[in-house]
Design the sequence.
């Protein structure tokens, strides 16, 4: 996957320390592919997604679940496509801010209009709201992925993040309330246990392009205040999405049309994960949580499923 080169200013892992760029430049360093440029209230970039990218990420998302019942992009893959430009956007916002120390990924929503396929994708990231808090500045980012050849919208993403210690972004807009669909439960919940090894985390890091050392290097993770490396928050969400696809979507990833979750705490590799699934509204929504012995890692998770044949 070809994407803009950015500093590691934003990361999907909770409580990740980062380093702001040393200047106020909003232009990333030269990259082998297209470079993001300012576009109105946000940034745009074009990237190329290959069939190999799609397959590698789907395999990493399906850690220990076996081969997929049907081919197709992983429901969480739009986040991967948007991630590099979201990193650059946060880098630009925090450049020159002496108080900025890192980013906490608070919540993520993905609304897929058309499943991703190999080809060129235009990415547009906008900062829709910012609010000053005791720990820094809370941001709302809105991202749209569009087919570069046809202009067809592929996915819309809503990201909530906290810029730790940051004070350089002026408050504006209104932070949206997180979605949590589903009104009537369908039967009892199901709890599954899964364990992600350090090797699984490394495979996900390379497939997603998120090589933050917090996920790969115990020394770096300890320096940041963790007992060791931590799993990617979106790896947990991607795993939940694949379980939901298998158990409630008849193995068809295209039926999972929307996905959301809030991140509560990091989870370490080789820690048992308890994934609880609860269908709602005649199986059109599945809510989920992911917990460890240390507490809840992912809360208020949900996935929306289209009826079979749509």
Sequence:
């Amino acid at each position: 996957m070809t994407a803009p080169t950015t500093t590691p200013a934003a990361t999907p892992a909770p409580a990740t320390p980062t380093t702001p760029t040393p200047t106020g430049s909003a232009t990333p360093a030269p990259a082998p592919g297209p470079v993001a440029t300012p576009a109105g209230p946000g940034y745009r970039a074009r990237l190329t997604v290959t069939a190999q990218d799609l397959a590698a990420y789907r395999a990493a998302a399906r850690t220990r679940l076996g081969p997929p019942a049907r081919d197709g992009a992983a429901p969480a893959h739009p986040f991967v496509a948007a991630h590099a430009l979201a990193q650059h956007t946060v880098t630009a916002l925090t450049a020159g801010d002496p108080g900025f120390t890192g980013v906490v990924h608070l919540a993520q929503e993905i609304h897929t209009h058309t499943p991703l396929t190999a080809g060129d994708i235009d990415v547009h990231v906008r900062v829709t709201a910012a609010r000053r808090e005791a720990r820094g500045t809370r941001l709302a980012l809105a991202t749209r992925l569009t087919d570069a050849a046809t202009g067809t919208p592929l996915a819309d993403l809503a990201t909530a993040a906290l810029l730790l210690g940051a004070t350089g972004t002026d408050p504006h807009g209104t932070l949206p309330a997180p979605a949590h669909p589903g009104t009537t439960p369908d039967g009892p919940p199901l709890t599954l246990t899964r364990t992600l090894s350090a090797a699984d985390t490394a495979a996900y890091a390379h497939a997603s392009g998120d090589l933050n050392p917090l996920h790969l290097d115990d020394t770096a993770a300890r320096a940041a205040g963790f007992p060791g490396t931590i799993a990617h928050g979106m790896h947990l969400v991607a795993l939940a999405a694949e379980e939901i696809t298998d158990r409630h979507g008849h193995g068809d990833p295209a039926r999972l049309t929307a996905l959301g979750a809030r991140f509560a705490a990091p989870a370490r590799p080789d820690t048992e994960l308890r994934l609880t699934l609860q269908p709602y509204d005649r199986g059109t929504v599945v809510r989920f949580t992911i917990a460890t012995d240390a507490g809840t890692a992912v809360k208020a998770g949900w996935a929306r499923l289209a009826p079979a044949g749509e």
Summary: The domain at 16-305 is CATH 3.10.129.10 (Thiol Ester Dehydrase; Chain A). The chain has one domain: 16-305. The longest helix spans residues 77-94.
